[in-house]
Write a structure and sequence with these properties.
With 423 residues, this protein is an alpha/beta fold. It folds into three domains: 152 residues, Rossmann fold, CATH 3.40.50.1980; 122 residues, Nitrogenase molybdenum iron protein domain (Rossmann fold, 3-Layer(aba) Sandwich), CATH 3.40.50.1980; 103 residues, Nitrogenase molybdenum iron protein domain (Rossmann fold), CATH 3.40.50.1980. It is 46% helix and 16% strand. A six-stranded parallel β-sheet has the order 1-12-11-10-13-14, sandwiched between helices. A four-stranded parallel β-sheet has the order 3-2-4-5, with helices on both faces. The chain is globular and about 60 Å long. The N and C termini lie far apart (44 Å). Bound molecules: iron/sulfur cluster. The site of iron/sulfur cluster has 12 residues, from helix 2.
Length: 423
């Protein structure tokens, strides 16, 4: 099954804007990644601002010993008066001694470390010499200069790929699902693939450093998240083959995503239908519940998470919502082709941002729901617009059949709340 195509949408004009943007930096990805990889530690090499962002965004108390922290660069580091590498080595030594549970350490670059051109790749190599094999040390950038919101996960996973073991002949029948998913969603997908006879299934990232998947030429991979351009390239460099598919959001999206794998692995049509029938029916029933509230409601997406296009497709195709503008920070047409193809012709797809111009368009259209970052949500609410925080869509398990109803509810809830406020 493929998603219902509309006419000529792949060639649709895309509005490209390059102005002031309102998005979180890639450090934000640490919030869900540190929960997913249970023996990893994310050491941000940054400023007090970075530390505050993480502290408040993750809502973690200092004494809770979270698996992330900030090596704070002081003014003397920034002015080049101290050897930042020496300072970093001391912080890492203290951390590794105090936390023997850490098996994978990410040095995460930030705006300040980039401004002083601190070479974290070299630092990771140097520190690996001291701590490997007990602790593997990798690096990536989460800086606001280089990355937006979900690109942090992309950079993190791309940094992992070269260190994954070689699968050898086992790669030939291996399915790799790429992108951080809630454990419960992973388990559901594993059961579905298993019932179809696809048994060699791995996930990237794995739940701990030891169980990161081996890959190799012939490994076939499905993306579970749409923001993984660099990771896809890194996997292709290892010989893995991308299976282009829509993303597993909603009953139709999940079916189409699973079907791409099923076709690639030669699963019989009748078996596929038998395995997916019951969960698909459950998802469709859950969605029916929200159709009355959402059908015909207009939607406007500000660019933030790169989930915007698949979400717009789901909300339009499965709930009858009417997307007016779908903004995305970046548009990778190759990864997004099956999704773009299923969007209605008249929707405006925009890439990048010039926030004032986009706010003008939003004000003119007065959508029923505006999906945006936290910084824009409050002012828009004050103006009487109903908003949905895009960050919530990344933190909440929304993929797969069993989560379809929860995903619809995330959009129904703000409308219900607004109606109550107006009564
Ligand atoms: S990395 Fe840059 S944008 Fe992100 S919190 Fe630190 S200073 Fe701010």
């Amino acid at each position: 099954m493929t998603l219902e195509p509309t006419s000529g949408c792949l060639d649709r004009p895309v509005l490209r804007e390059r102005g002031q943007r309102e998005v979180f930096c890639g450090l934000t990805g640490i919030i869900w990644l540190h929960r997913k990889i249970q023996d990893a530690f994310f050491l941000i090499v940054g400023s007090r601002t970075c530390a505050h962002l993480m502290q408040s965004a993750a809502g973690v108390m200092i004494f809770a010993e979270p698996r992330f922290g900030t090596a704070i660069m002081e003014e003397k580091d920034l002015a080049g008066l101290a050897d930042a590498n020496e300072e970093l080595d001391k912080v890492v030594a203290r951390l590794v001694e105090r936390r023997p549970d850490i098996k994978l350490l990410f040095l995460v670059g930030s705006c300040p470390s980039e401004v002083i051109k601190l070479d974290l790749a070299k630092a990771a190599q140097r520190l690996s010499g001291t701590y490997a094999p007990d602790v593997r040390i990798l690096n990536y950038s989460g800086s606001g200069i280089e990355t937006t919101f979900t690109e942090g996960e992309d950079a993190c996973l791309a940094s992992l790929v070269p260190s994954l073991p070689e699968a050898g002949e086992a790669a030939a029948d291996q399915l790799l699902v790429v992108g951080a998913l809630a454990d419960v969603v992973e388990d559901q997908f594993t059961r579905l693939f298993d019932a179809m006879g696809i048994q060699n299934v791995s996930f990237l990232p794995a739940r701990n450093a030891e169980s990161m998947p081996a890959i190799g030429p012939g490994t076939r991979f499905l993306l579970a998240q749409p923001f993984l351009t660099e990771t896809s390239r890194a996997l292709a460099r290892r010989g893995a083959v991308h299976l282009p598919a829509p993303f597993p959001l909603g009953a139709q999206g999940t079916t189409a995503w699973l079907q791409v794998a099923a076709e690639s692995f030669g699963v019989d049509d009748a078996l596929f239908t038998e395995v997916t029938a019951a969960p698909k029916a459950r998802a469709e029933k859950a969605l029916t519940h929200y159709q009355e509230q959402l059908t015909g409601k207009t939607l406007f997406f500000f660019p933030d998470s790169q989930l915007e296009i698949p979400l717009a497709r789901f909300l339009h195709a499965e709930l009858g919502m009417v997307p007016l503008e779908v903004g995305t920070p970046f548009l990778n047409k190759a990864l997004m082709a099956p999704e773009l193809d299923a969007l209605p012709d008249e929707v405006l797809v925009s890439e990048g941002q010039d926030v004032d111009k986009q706010l003008d368009r939003c004000h003119d259209q007065r959508p029923d729901i505006t999906v945006c970052g936290l910084g824009l949500a409050n002012p828009l609410e004050v103006e009487g617009l109903t908003t949905k925080w895009s960050i919530e869509l990344v933190f909440t398990p929304i993929q797969g059949y069993e989560q379809a109803g929860d995903l619809a509810e995330l959009f129904a809830r703000p409308l219900v709340r607004r109606t109550r406020l107006e009564v």
